[in-house]
Amino acid sequence: MIKVGDTLPSATLQEYSEVEGEGCSIGPNPVDVTKAAAGKTIALFALPGAFTPTCSAKHVPGYVQHFEDFKAAGVDEIWCVSVNDAFVMGAWARDQKTGTKVRMLADGSGNFANATGLTLDLTSRGMGVRSNRYSMLVKDGKVATLNVEAPGKFEVSDADTLLAQAKG
Predict the structure, then answer these.
(1) Counting beta carbons within 10 angstroms of the beta carbon of residue 110, is it exposed (0 to 12), middle (13 to 18) or buried (19 or more)?
(2) In this structure, which CATH number among 1.10.3720.10, 3.30.1490.20, 3.20.20.10, 3.40.30.10 belongs to the domain 12-167?
């Protein structure tokens, strides 16, 4: 399992773009995790699935709400990572009104989740292997803080906890 001090795994996530710009075409675009994290401070949170109750009602809204606070604390970007495809993450971004505040990054095959060792097996519930719920503060590609939730919990990966650590 990834831990504080480790470098984020080399992986490619997908991001759905609704407008062309900065080398991105409309539709899914690859995001090289190593390149995208280089030289930046990132508030990264991961969750089991788009449109799921806790994720939609609490997890994403907290990060959207605290966007300016994260910026003031020196965070360059906020990333939401989930084992869903880029089209689903794009639709969820519209639903959650994340705009340019939270990058909704798809880990469609779970490669990033597997590489971090932070997976959650929901096969018995018909959802397959997903990402565990967690948050981390990443500085120049290295994990500075890590908050992993116990199964079924939402107590330490919320925006308030990670924001306090960013201000730290």
Answers:
(1) middle
(2) 3.40.30.10
Query: Which of the residues are catalytic?
Result: 55
pLDDT averages per 10-residue partition of the chain, 168 residues: 97 88 76 98 95 88 98 98 95 94 96 95 81 97 97 94 96
Q: Which residues contact 142 (CB under 8 A, 6 or more apart)?
A: 5, 6, 7, 8
**Cβ distance 37 to 138 under 8 Å?**
yes
- Structure tokens that stand for 122 in this block: 């929901």
Structure pTM? 0.93
User: What are the residue ranges spanned by the domains of the chain?
Assistant: 12-167
